[in-house]
């Protein structure tokens, strides 16, 4: 029992940080939860072929509710672009479902490489004073918007993250106002996490060596431990997003993300 105390404490601490980051940056919390869950599963010598998939799927299960909490807080402040949600929604959901269903056929090392590589790019983007600007508005083409949202949904599902990690930098590159990008991205998390989680449940159904009370790759006990803290702290992050200059918070998070990404890549190639 005593051995479980530091594990539970670590998960709770990660959940609190994930909730704050979900509201503050619109990232859904998975960018924090996936590596923490993965390292905990590795520490307790959980089967290596399941660890990354379980971490990703369990993270997605919590993002559904964290994103609802965060999106509601941003919507009250008028920072959710409903028109963009309608435009990007189908692509996000189709891409996320494809990612969840296809995850079973991806080697765990492949997921680690994907997570680590994207996380390093996100960390670099977060640490720069001025983000890349491609154009002064989003493309008007339905096909271009569909392609962008499909790719964001697919990669987000495979990484176990909400839409903000990829969509906020993308929207910022098209001159989308940052608070509106964060608020809308928090709502994207719902559209991504629901179909992605369904895909991970289906693709992991019936596999051996999963822990008790698992639905496919989703660990229900872990999700239930995380949820109160991510949901509870997401509104605090949203409040901070509308009251603070988040540049130093973003840079500190970028350092954490870069360290995590490097360790994930080292684990993939070890």
UniProtKB/TrEMBL annotation:
Alphabetized UniProt keyword annotations: Cell membrane, Membrane, Transmembrane, Transmembrane helix
GO cellular component: plasma membrane
Coiled-coil intervals, chain numbering: none
Pfam family, one: TauE
Topological type in the membrane: Multi-pass membrane protein
This protein's record includes keyword Transmembrane helix: yes
Top-level taxon of origin: Bacteria
Primary localization class, coarse: membrane
InterPro entries: TM_pro_TauE-like
Residues that span the membrane, as ranges: 6-38, 50-68, 88-106, 113-135, 147-169, 181-202, 214-236, 248-269
Entry keyword GTP-binding: no
UniProt subcellular location: Cell membrane; Membrane
Family: Belongs to the 4-toluene sulfonate uptake permease (TSUP) (TC 2.A.102) family.
PANTHER family documented for this protein: MEMBRANE TRANSPORTER PROTEIN HI_0806-RELATED
Protein name per its UniProtKB record: Probable membrane transporter protein
């Amino acid at each position: 029992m005593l051995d479980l105390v530091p594990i539970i404490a670590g998960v709770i601490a990660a959940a609190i940080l994930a909730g704050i980051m979900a509201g503050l940056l619109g990232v859904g919390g998975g960018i924090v939860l996936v590596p923490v869950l993965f390292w905990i599963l590795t520490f307790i010598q959980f089967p290596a072929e399941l660890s990354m998939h379980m971490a990703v799927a369990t993270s997605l299960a919590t993002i559904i509710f964290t994103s609802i909490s965060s999106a509601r807080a941003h919507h009250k402040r008028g920072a959710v672009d409903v028109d963009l949600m309608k435009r990007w929604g189908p692509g996000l959901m189709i891409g996320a479902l494809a990612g969840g269903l296809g995850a079973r056929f991806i080697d765990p090392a492949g997921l680690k490489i994907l997570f680590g590589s994207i996380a390093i790019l996100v960390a670099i983007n977060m640490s720069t004073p001025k983000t890349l600007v491609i154009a002064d508005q989003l493309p008007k083409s339905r096909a271009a918007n569909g392609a962008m949202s499909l790719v964001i949904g697919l990669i987000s599902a495979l990484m176990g993250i909400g839409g903000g990690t990829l969509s906020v930098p993308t929207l910022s590159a098209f001159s989308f106002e940052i608070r509106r990008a964060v608020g809308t991205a928090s709502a994207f998390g719902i559209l991504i996490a629901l179909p992605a989680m369904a895909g991970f449940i289906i693709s992991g159904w019936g596999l051996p060596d999963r822990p008790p009370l698992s639905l496919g790759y989703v660990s229900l006990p872990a999700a239930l431990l995380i949820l109160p803290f991510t949901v509870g702290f997401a509104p605090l992050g949203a409040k901070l997003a509308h009251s603070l200059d988040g540049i130093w918070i973003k840079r500190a998070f970028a350092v954490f993300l870069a360290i995590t990404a490097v360790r994930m890549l080292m684990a993939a190639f070890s």
